[in-house]
Design a protein that fits this description.
The chain has helices at residues 40-62, 102-116, 118-123; strands at residues 3-9, 12-17, 22-25, 66-78, 86-98, 128-137. The protein is an alpha+beta fold. Helix 1 (40-62) packs across helix 2 (102-116).
């Protein structure tokens, strides 16, 4: 896997993935940026959320669960001093579908957290990772 980061100006950068997708990352106005895009640490949270959501949806579909939506809301706390690593990350899943069994949703989330989600497992080396979920019946 490869990526390329190119400095634009100030504290703004363009990132290009190995698959050819680009995005702008920038700092806050207070931090010398123009707020043109997400912060790099926000991107890390999005990566973890996308990775674990992919797992949860895939596991539930393989189990033939009638899932129609999955949202992961993420809250994180960073250290006060440098390096300002994540110290706590909480993922709240909102899984919508028909006749979803709580034990099946919990199993999918736990499998992602403990076995499949590389991003979450990596972040879990410095942060306390917690999860919960709710089911919305459609």
């Amino acid at each position: 896997m490869k990526a390329r980061i190119k400095w634009i100006e100030g504290v703004a950068f363009v990132g290009e993935t190995g698959s050819g997708h680009g995005l702008v990352m920038d700092g806050s106005v207070e931090g010398g940026g123009r707020n043109l895009g997400p912060r790099p640490m926000e991107m890390m949270l999005l990566g973890a959320g996308g990775c674990t959501s992919y797992d949860v949806v895939t596991i539930l579909k393989k189990a033939r669960a009638d899932i129609v939506d999955c949202v992961a809301e993420i809250e994180a706390v960073r250290a006060d001093t440098d390096p300002k690593v994540f110290t706590k990350i909480h993922l709240h899943f909102i899984v919508s579908g028909r006749n979803l069994k709580p034990e099946l949703v919990a199993r999918a989330i736990n499998l992602s957290a403990e076995k499949y989600c590389s991003a979450s497992i990596m972040l879990g080396k410095t942060a306390e990772m917690t999860h919960d979920f709710e089911i919305v019946e459609i």
